What we know:
The chain is an alpha/beta fold. The protein has helices at residues 28-39, 54-66, 87-92, 100-114, 140-154, 165-168; strands at 12-18, 43-50, 72-76, 97-98, 124-128, 131-136.
Amino acid sequence: MSDDRDGFVPLKVAVLTVSDTRTDETDRSGQALVERLTGAGHRLADKQIVIDDVYRIRAVVAGWIADPEVQVILTTGGTGFTGRDSTPEAVSVLLDKQIEGFGELFRHLSWQEIGSSTIQSRCLGGLANATVVFCLPGSTGACRTAWDGILAEQLDSRHKPCNFANLVIPERGQHV
C-alpha cells in the first residue's frame, strides 16, 4: 500500500462534478482536482459529472461510500445559494460525522482571495463508512484553494499531528 515516499500511502479518490452545463471537455474544476490528486501520488478511483439534482448526486455519492475501493470523495459544484444548488442537502444526510471545521477553514482561506463573497460557499466535509467526503464550490479557483490549503495535507498519511488519510487506511486501525 505504501510507495517509496517515506511512508506515503496513496488513497483512492473519486471526483464528482455537479453541474447542469459541464461536460468532460469543459469540466475545469473536476480536472484541476484530478491533476492535483494524481500529482500528489493518489489514485483516481472514478470521475463523473451529474446534474444538480439532490437524488442523482446522492445516488452517486452513496454508491462510492458503499464501495470499498473508494477512500475519498471530492465533489465540486452545487454548494452556492441558487435555486439548483443542492450538493450539501444531497450529501449531508449520508454522513456519519461532519467535519465542522472544514467549511470554516475553507472560508478563511478563500477570504484572502475573494473577500466577503466566500460567505456564499456552503462547502462541507464529513466521514461515512470509512470514507472521507469533501464538497467543494464549483470554481476552479476554489478547488485549488481547498486542495492546496487543506486537502493536500489532510490526505497525506505523513502529515502530523493528524490527518484524515489515517482514518480511511484500514491497516492503520483508526477507521472504525
